[in-house]
Design brief:
globular; about 55% helix; about 0% strand; 4 helices; mainly alpha; single chain; about 90 residues
Amino acid sequence: METTKLTLSMDRGTIETAKRIARNRRTSVSAMFREIVHDLARDEDDDFDIEKLHPHTRELLGMAKTPIEKTDRELLEEALWEKYGLDE
């Protein structure tokens, strides 16, 4: 698998949290991000199966209560719009 460098910008606290979580799980931030992206991609499949999720992702399920009428993607988009003060 060929790798390409990606630069992400976020607040220092989030970066430190990601590093701590990765260190505790004995992985890298890059590997952890890759797992999250793959899990999200699987979530978009019509044949979504909770058992296909990475165990770390399954641990997080149900921790947050969200409006049933909105998809995960819609909630993420709203959060990003709000966080960065973007106008639609």
